[in-house]
Amino acid sequence: MSDPFGRKRSKGVFATLVSKGDWLYTRLEYKKAIESYTTALSLKPKDRTCFVGRSRCYLKLGQYVDALIDADASLAEEKIFSEGLYQKAEALYHMGEFEFALMFYHKGQKLRPQIEEFRLGIQKATKAIEDTIGPPSVKLEMKGDLSFLRNDDEEADPMAILEQLMKKGQQKPEKTPKNEKTSKQLLGEFYGDKKHLESLLKDKDLTQGTTRSGEPLKDVIQDCLRNLNTCTELWGQEKPIGSSARETKNRVAKNDKPSPNTTSEQNQCVLKSLEEINEDLSSGNTEVCIKKADEVMKMILGCSERDMPNKKVLLGKLHSCIGNAYLEIGDIDKALEHHQKDLELAMQCKLSDVTSQALGAIGQIYAQIGHFLKAIEFWSKKIPLVTDGEEKAWLFHELGRCYLELGGNEDARNFGVRSLTAADEISDEKWKIMAIVLISQAESKLGNFESSVSCFERALNLAKLQDDDDPTMLNDIQKALDEAKQHLPK
Questions:
Q1: Rounded to an integer, what distance in angstroms lies between the CA atom of residue 424 and that of residue 162?
Q2: Residues in a beta bridge with 216
Q3: Which CB contacts under 8 angstroms, 24+ apart, belong to 388-391?
Q4: What's the CA dihedral at 186, 190, 193, 194 to 10 degrees?
Q5: Helix, strand or coil, per DSSP, at residue 8
Q6: What structural domains does the chain harbor?
Q7: Burial environment of residue 79 by CB neighbours within 10 A (0 to 12, 13 to 18, 19 or more)
Q8: What is the pLDDT of residues 237-288, one digit of tens each?
Q9: Chain centre to alpha carbon of residue 411
C-alpha cells in the first residue's frame, strides 16, 4: 500500500524494525506489525512516524481507541505533524466522532493541500454529518473566519467550529459589546471592582490557589465577573444610557412626577450583599451565608420588577448561593430545590451561562447521591452551552463515568474519547490521563482486555511525566493495570 506522505527512514536496527512493520502492514499482518513497531518504540520511545504506523494497524484491527491514542502520541511534540493529524482524523471518523474528524481533516488539508487523503476525508466526514443530523443550512467550506487554523500553537474548539459551519447565516448577529465608558456609567462605583477582578484574573499564581473550602479562586473571581457583566447587560437593556431625556418627556406627557432614583441604589446594595454572601460561602460560613441570602431575597421579593428590572437574575443568583451552602452542610433536598429555582429563572431570562452553571450543579448533586440517570439528563442539556475546553473535558468525563456506573460501557468509552479530545485541544495532561483511564475501564468492561491494558500503560506513562508529589494517581493506575493484565490470555 502506498504512503502518500513519502516517509524516509534512517538506517540501523530501529529502521529495520520499522521497515519490517511497514512490510507486515502491506501483507495485512497487522498484529505482527504492531509487535515490530512496539519493539522499535522501545528503542526510540518518541518516534512519531512509528506511532503513526502502529496507529494504522490498530485502525485496521478495529481498535479505534488505541489508534487514536497512538495518533495523539505522534502529535505530542509537534501539533502540525500532518501524518499524525490524518491518522487522528481517521481514528475519530471510525469512532463516529465525525465533527472532530472534520476539524482535523481541515487542519491537515490547510497544512498539506496537495495530499488527496485530506480532501477525501473532508468529503466523507461532511457526508457522515449530513446523514446523521441532516444537511447543513450552508455548504461546509474553508471560507470565512478560519482563525482556528491560523496558529499551530492555538488549539481549536471542535464544538464551536461545528456550530460555525452548520449554523452560519441562521444566527442573528451578536450585539456589539458595550464600550468601557458605557460600562463605567452603568456599573457606577462597582466599575472599580470589575477592573480589580479583571486584574486578579491575570495573576496566574493567585488563580491557581483555592479558598479554605477548596473552591478554586479562579472560579470565584470569574463568578463575580459574570454577575457584574450580567447586571451591566440588564441595566443597559432596561435603562439605556442617553434615554433619560426621553423618559422625562414621557413622564411629563403622562403627568407623572419623577420619583427619586432608588433603583440604582437598590441594585448596588444587592450586589454588595451578593459579594459578602459569596465571601461567606468561600470561607465556609455556610449558616451565615444562608441567613444573609434569605434576608436579601425577602428584600428583593418586596420590590416590583419596575423598581428592580433585574429582579429574576438576582433571585437566581441567591438561589444558587443558598443551594451551594446547603450542599456544603449535606442537605441534598434543599440544595436541589434552590438550584432548580436558579435554573428556572435562568431559562426565563435566557441567560445561557447561568443556565449552564445551574445544569452543572444539579447534575453534580445527582451524581453525588448515585442517581446517574438524572445526572446524565441534566449534564446532557449542558453540552451545547459549554465552550471552555477544560469544562468540556470535565463534563464529558463525568458523563462517561455515569454511563460506566450504569453499565453503558460503549457510551462510557465514547465520552472518554470526547474528554480525551477536549483535553488534548487545551494540552491538559491531567484530564488526558483521567480520560484514558476512563477509556481503559470501559474497554475492560467490554471485554477488550488487550486494549484496556494498552490504555492503562499509556495513562501510567503520562502520569509518570507529571510533576506531582501525590503518588495516589500513579498507585491507582498501576493497581488497575495489574488487575487488567490478569485477564490477558496466558
A1: 18
A2: 210
A3: 389/155, 389/157, 389/422, 389/423, 389/425, 389/426, 389/428, 390/426, 390/428, 390/431
A4: -20
A5: coil
A6: 13-167 (1.25.40.10), 183-369 (1.25.40), 386-490 (1.25.40.10)
A7: middle
A8: 444 444 443 343 343 344 443 344 445 566 677 778 888 888 877 778 888 8
A9: 18
Mean pLDDT, residues 421-443: 88
Cα 124 to the chain's mean position, in Å? Answer: 26
What length does the chain have? 490
d(CA 121, CA 21): 25
The Cα–Cα gap between 431 and 450 comes to 23
C-alpha cell at 416: 472518554
The C-alpha atoms of residue 209 and residue 215 are separated, in whole angstroms, by 9
In contact, 48 and 77? CB cutoff 8 Å: yes
Residue that the C-alpha cell 420590590 belongs to: 303
Residue 490 to residue 413: CA distance in whole angstroms? 26
CA–CA dist 425, 413 (Å, integer): 18
Judged by DSSP in three states, 428 sits in coil
Q: What are the residues whose beta carbons fall under 8 Å from the beta carbon of 109, sequence distance 6 or more?
A: 115, 118, 119, 121, 122, 142
DSSP letters spanning 172-206: PPPPPPPPHHHHHHHHTTHHHHHHHHHHHHT-HHH
Are residues 234 and 309 in contact, defined by beta-carbon separation less than 8 angstroms? yes
Cα 311 to Cα 303: distance, rounded to the nearest angstrom: 8
Which residue shows C-alpha cell 455548504? 139
CB distance 309 to 235 below 8 Å: yes
User: Which cell numbers hold the place of 449?
Assistant: 482486555
| Dihedral sign (CA 160, 161, 166, 171) | positive
Rounded distance between C-alpha atoms, residue 230 and residue 241, angstroms: 16
Residues 384 and 397: their CA atoms lie apart, in Å, by 15
Under a CB-based contact definition with an 8 Å cutoff, are residues 450 and 488 in contact? yes
Cβ contact 149:107 at 8 Å: yes
Query: What pTM was estimated for this model as a whole?
Result: 0.55
Q: Which residue has the higher pLDDT, 405 or 264?
A: 405
Identity at 253, one-letter amino acid code = A
